[in-house]
Specification:
This protein has 4 helices and 2 strands; from the N terminus they run αβααβα. The protein is mainly alpha-helical and about 130 residues long.
């Protein structure tokens, strides 16, 4: 069933791209050397699957005006594979990759906290100057 395959593939991609816990199992696992046999083939297959998705007129989705999310997934897949190979396998600078740390939500939370702290400092300065 094509619809089931599509939903499962993207559900598993979202889970893998949202790994937060170093001890998680299944598709929510961090990218480690010990479990590379599990997630690397999935990412390679998902990449090929996305590249071969077509509209009803036969054009590939990643070449149409609706390409942005599909290209985003392809870039994320290649980026995580390259980062894992460079930082975990080759340099041994990391034990694993928690992919959640690279998500936009994580960056937004960080900058939100920075903005909050800056606002507090600004309010304290105004209060001090007022009295």
């Amino acid at each position: 069933m094509p619809t089931v395959n599509f939903i499962r593939t993207f559900n598993n991609l979202f889970d893998l791209f949202n790994s937060r816990n170093p001890f998680a199992k299944g598709m929510k696992t961090p990218l480690k050397k010990e479990n590379e046999f599990y997630w690397r083939p999935f990412l390679k297959n998902a990449s090929q699957y996305i590249k071969h998705l077509k509209l009803s007129n036969g054009s590939y989705l990643h070449t149409t005006t609706r390409k942005v999310p599909f290209i985003g997934f392809l870039v994320a897949i290649e980026t995580f594979l390259k980062m894992f190979d460079d930082e975990v396998k080759t340099n041994n600078s990391l034990k694993y990759l928690l992919t959640y740390k690279f998500s936009q939500d994580h960056l937004e939370l960080f900058f939100c906290s920075v903005r909050y702290e800056m606002t507090l400092k600004y309010i304290k300065q105004i209060t001090f100057l007022h009295f």
